[in-house]
Amino acid sequence: LATLIEDDSPRHQVQAQSYLTLPRDVEVDLMYYGVGHLANQAVPGYHRLDARLGWRPQAPVRLALVVQNLG
Fold this sequence. Notes:
- The chain has no helices and 4 strands.
- The protein is mainly β and 71 residues long.
């Protein structure tokens, strides 16, 4: 049976997302994630930024370029 110990979960977590549709069916999405450290387990916190550039030349075709972990 696992025992819960203080600081086994990050104290802070944040997630923010932005979705933008531009003319000519171009889409730009940004996603940010931040997680605090786990002091009791000596695990560092981290930040991550993901981005997606998409285009719909005609339905149902979608093309996208995705980049993860920019931060």
